[in-house]
Structure formats: structure tokens, C-alpha cells
Amino acid sequence: MLDRIRSLFGLRHKQRAIQPAQWASVEARLPFLGFLPAAERERLRSLALDFLATKEFHGAHGLQLDDDTLLAIALQACLPILNTGLQAYANWVGVVIYPGDILIPRSEFDDAGVLHEYDDEVLGEAWEGGPVLIAWFEHGEQPAGINVVIHEFAHKLDMENGGVDGLPQLRPGMSRAVWADAFSKAYEDFCADVDLGRPCAVDPYGADSPGEFFAVVSEAFFETPCVLQARFPAVYEQLRQLYQLDPAAGERAAGQSQHD
User: Fold this and answer.
1) Which of 173, 165, 169, 178 is nearest to 238 (CA)?
2) Residue 117's beta-bridge partner residues?
3) Rounded CA separation 6/120 (Å)
């Protein structure tokens, strides 16, 4: 399987390997890609093919990885690095795709020193220096409001400067103090919304930690950018600078074109 993947998506053949109809079919399942200008869509396609040529892909529990699945994963994985490049994902090679939820064995000691072992059901996990695990669902079966691929690859960016703390490696000219101020205030407000059961602009799972908050707002930045911008404008602005993209402008333009 891996040899076939590398042959199909090899850099020397990438211009000829994927036909426009196949790109259109795959991208139809990812409507938020329509928020990107045409030139950036083309760059994303090229980066996705480079990503596929340099990573190793494994289907867990007998999952057969077809070309459309690989392209869909690569397009989403490369959105956060469209303007930084593959070096952001340089220190690891594996992507493991599971058919549905993932069960990961865990063990932990409680306050009394008793060891507890259990299976943790997750949709994905990124390991520092190691692979990315992704739960993959057939079209229409993905949990609503969740993008596992973008979420886990946002964690990979967060890990670039050590740990998962919600502070990725910022782009030149960005201020750590401004980032921290925007995210700490938004995270506090968001956790209050979750605690009080108020409607949330992003996945409530983000209240688990600042690292998870960064991952879920990154999902929203690409999938529901106008909602994120309206609820957390300072966070949206920091992500706009980090990713060097403005999907909210693209979403508004797409909505306007539909009404013309």
C-alpha cells in the first residue's frame, strides 16, 4: 500500500497523478476549502501532494485507504501550514487512520496511590515526535462540529516549541504578550460559557485545557470562521496572523456570491 501511495503521489508525477474531476470530488466533501482564493486552493493541492509523498500512512484494523481518503486528509492537514510549509511537520512521519473511534489503553494512579487502567475512547491523538492518530468516518458520519484532522495537526503545531500549551511557534512580527492576552481572556470567557451551559461558538471540549482550546478554535477558524470572528475577534486576529489566511473574508464573499 505504501509503495502504491508513494508512486501515485511522487513529486515527479504530482502534476499528472490527480485529475481535476478527482480534486473536485474530494473537495466537495470539504466545503470550507471554498473560503480560500483560487490561487491558494492550487497551492494547497500542491502542498497536500508533497505531504503525501513524505509521510507514511497506515490503516488500522484492516482499514483500506483509498486515494480519495488520503487526499482529503492531506488537504486538511496542510491547511494550517499552507503559508509555512512542510518543515512544520518535519520531525515525524506516521499517520495512522482508524475506522471510527479509537480506543487507547490508559493507566493512572489516583490520590490514594491506586492504579486504574482503562480504555480511553478518542477521535484522534497527536504524539510529540511520533505519529498522528485519526478516526476516519464515511461521508456524513463525522461527528457534527468537529474536524479531527485539523484539530490533531493544530496540536502538532503547538508541539513545535514543546508541549501542548496553546502557544505554538509564532510567526515573525507576532507578539507572545498579545497572543497570551487574547487567548487567556477568550479561554476564561469560553470556560464560563461551558460551565454555565451557554451555547458555545466552538466545541466545548476546548474547555479541557488551553492546548485543546487552541486546537478547537483552529478547527473553527477554517470551518466556521465568521462565527469564530464574531465571538472571539481577538483570537481570530491572532490566528489570521499565525496562519496568514483570512477565511472569514472568504466565507463572506462566498455567501455574497450565492445571493448575487
Assistant:
1) 178
2) 107
3) 33
Strands 115-122 and 102-109: antiparallel
Superfamily of domain 165-260: Collagenase (Catalytic Domain) (3.40.390.10)
Angle at which helix 148-158 crosses helix 67-78, to 10 degrees, equals: 50
Burial of 92 (0-12, 13-18, 19+ CB in 10 A): middle
Distance CA 85, CA 32 (A): 20
Which of 64-73, 101-110, 139-148, 190-199 shows the lowest mean pLDDT across its residues?
A: 101-110
Segment 149-182, tens digit of pLDDT: 999 999 999 999 888 999 999 999 999 999 999 9
pLDDT reading at 10 higher than 90 = no
Domains 1-153 and 165-260 share a fold: no
Question: Model's pTM, two decimal places?
Answer: 0.86
- Smallest CA-to-CA distance from 217 within 168, 178, 163 is with 168
* Domain ranges, ordered by start, for the chain: 1-153, 165-260
